[in-house]
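Feature request disguised as a bug report, sorry. It would help if multi-protein outputs had a clear separator. Right now it looks like this:
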Amino acid sequence: MGDIGRRGAIALTVTGLLAPLTLALGAAPAQAAGCTTSAGPYQKQVEKFLGRPVDGRQSAADCRAIKAFQTKHGISPNIGYAGSVTWGVMDLMNKQKAVGKNPNKAGKCPVNKGRIACVNLTLQLSWIQDGSKLVYGPVPVRTGRNGYETRTGLKKIYWRHIDHVSSIYNVPMPYSQFFDGGQAFHAVGISVWNPPGSHGCANMTTADAKKYWSLLKKGDDVYVYGRKPGT
């Protein structure tokens, strides 16, 4: 999924062909090799997030900073345009940071199960708690995209495989801990903020997946709740 905006949607590509899908989505000018000079609809918010001067005007330095962020997190096209996808990732990061060390403040993850891994789809966060005591986290996760949603409810870890490779997508899934019909916690080699999301698993950084592997065991509870933005 790429970043979308309203400006410059009607443009010819370098081959002279009109991109009808881009037009339909209202995408920013496709200048993949460089930077756009257009200010996006979330220019000020993105500037503030990146610590840039907040003036709502696109500068070359603004574009370089936005482009670097997009490249790091796999946002396409990475042309420095402050569109809805880029701001959506940043806004989620802000909300995750605001949670601090009290991820179960609303009490939605059960505290009567002993050790349990919690997944808040709305905030794309996971943590391990024991009763009301926080054991590890919260950490960012990348859950299922639209059409491949990570299923909600109370589950249990039923199989663990440290060097698993997906038989469907033929991709490595290190430190896999399966909790619901092929959906698992596992490490990924891309940003956990990479849109639009996984095929149902709860993707984690390698460090966090290793820690989950050391703290959880077969039979431990997993509770998934909320709704991932965009699903």
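(second protein starts here, but nothing in the output says so)
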Amino acid sequence: MRVLQEILNDLGIAVFAASGALLGVRKDFDLWGIVTVGVLTGVGGGILRDLLLGITPPTSVQNWPPIIVAAVASLAIFFFHPTFTQLRRSVLILDAIGMGLFASSGAAVAIDQHVSAFAATLVGLLTAVGGGILRDVLANEIPLLLQPADLYAVPALLGAGVVAVGGTLSSVPIWVWLIIGTAVATGLRVAGLAFGWRLPTAGPGWRRRDAGT
């Protein structure tokens, strides 16, 4: 179980760091800027998770592997980014994978700290979105979490919820729920991107009334 969590965590760090580095490439950052955005994107969600759970110093600060994994992934993107023909799509796909991995692994870490299923779900959600928000803020982008009607937080919430509820209320091994939760979160996010699934908005009437005041 511990080994699987570490593998998922490292995979999440790597793909999130890659998404951050790709955004840095698209923004014409230099080598330092690309690696910085990549590393902070990769470890940001885990740091937020650990602070919420009272794990201090955070694992990504206390131990060197998370930052090294993020840095290596960022450097790989810096040198090989021409192979990515559509940077925007690559960022979104990598972000979806990282989000799914972090949502499930964040909830599993919370369960290890003996919190409730509700708290584990919220921790998984915040773990999943924390690094992406930091990446977009650093790159002066509207965070994916806040883009109009973008299906982002809901997949993370559902993926984390699957792990939290399944891991606390059933006898099925937690690694099974980790895989299912990751698949649910990532799959729903990718399906939303592919088919244009969106949440409802308040509608243009609100904007017209605001403009008239």
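Even a blank line would do. Unrelated, but nice: The mean pLDDT is 86.
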